[in-house]
Amino acid sequence: MTLLEVNDLTVKFYTQDGVVTAVDNLSYQIESGEKFGVVGESGAGKSVTALSLMRLIDSPGQIESGEILFKGEDLLEMSEEEVRNIRGNEIAMIFQDAQTALNPVYTVGEQIAEAIRHHLGHDEAEARERTIQLLDRVGIPEAETRFSDYPHEFSGGMQQRAVIAMALSCDPDLLLCDEPTTALDVTIEAQILEELEELADDFDTAIQLITHDLGVVAEVCDRVMVMYGGKPVEKAPVEELYYDPKHPYTVGLMSSIPRVGDDRDRLQTIPGTMPDLVELPPGCSFHPRCPYAEESCTRKEPPLLDPETGEEAAGTANEHAAACLEYSGELQGGLDYSVEINDSQGEPTAVNPEGDRND
Amino acid sequence: MRRIYESGALHRDDEHFTPNKRDRSYRPQALRSLNSTRLSRSLLPNRFGYRAISISVSTPREEFASDTAIPFQVTMKNTLPVPVTVPTNSPVLWTWDVDGTTNASRVPLHDPPEESGAFVFDRGERKQFTKGWQQLFRVSESEWEPAEPGEYTIGAEVNVDNADKKGLRGTTTVRIVPETATDADGR
Lengths: 359, 187
Hints:
A: Rossmann fold, four-stranded antiparallel β-sheet, B: Immunoglobulin-like, DUF7974 (chain B), DUF7974 domain-containing protein (chain B), P-loop_NTPase (chain A)
């Protein structure tokens, strides 16, 4: 069953530098219990997309058009009170920086218990009991004593766990994780991802995982959407994306993952930076950084296409779609990269763009 | 030997501290007692505000080879020593255009909400925005067409009615010449 359906979502910020189109005509859906990854560099519009789902876009931002159907109801048409009943209850969010997300003057336990009392109607003792269970569930040692600790008394990893406990407190149907492990070291990251997966399976929660770490996506997600400049450039089931990436940006992202034992002198990166969202380059937004770009890429912006047929993507859940003129037959030179699969690890660990025709 | 607590160097704060109690006798000097932006907005008539703002557009040179980006700088200055607020037609505070084509696009790019905006300039403030025109006109949602060689006027204006008459528009002229007529640097 489709839990969340986002159709043609456009979010703009009106600033004095110009209009920032943070999310441009974005459509996707998430099924119940599914783990959906959103990948892209900083400034790709990943976090704004998640905040829009919670109706948390603040001035000067505006959700300009589109619809966000959650269980068939449009979140954008709801009153503030209706949204407040859904926020934290049916849709919960794990924010990027746990230290900022927690209120420093309330105890961690109280902050979690508040949501339980508000949404589930439990009394003080019941809420406390459930909070302690949750803290214990996310791996906080001595949860009962830690209930009355303040956020500064928790370590970074524990704060993140507390935020996860808070997000899971009301058994949400959809969990938006905005780079939940960015601030953590890799061992804690692995633990937290494992916990998230486990908890999502136990509670049958759908997860929208926002990250710029492709390794995390490969580990956790079922389907992935790659975003660039506020637009989706590739959507695919996770295995297809890794074994058979169709968009040069995805290829660039994958080839820039450092690997142990790699004998290249320099780490391969995507040249340049994300364009200014006030003034996106004409044509395909990625063309200034794309090694395969041709003149047609500067004149025409490709929609999401089915790489096999070259027809516009239908928007179905499991399709593989990429926004590149290669698939509409308008690219003369083609995309000449290859995917190497390192069999010893059984995973596609290398994507090497072979020819750089910009040389 | 004299102990540090006998020296008077330590000030002991033995009184009970109550965070919501404030010493009214002391006021930080930096604290402004007036919101001068709001005050000038209500006191300064719009026509004076319009007159106070100057706007100009500049490019590094006048001639550009075709297919090269044309960078331009929009400079707005408040000549008054008080803040000026210019009420705008929408939250889009200002726009740029090429020969009157806003954002060099023949299709509307933005559909701003129907509410007014306010372009706030601090006292004597100079705002500078760097933009670029790729010598392309957007002709549909997903297509662009190159501009022919010739003379083009790049303009920028504050989003008010009759910006030109109110002095809230600046322009500059650039010439696009075929690539063969220029040297390798595009000069």
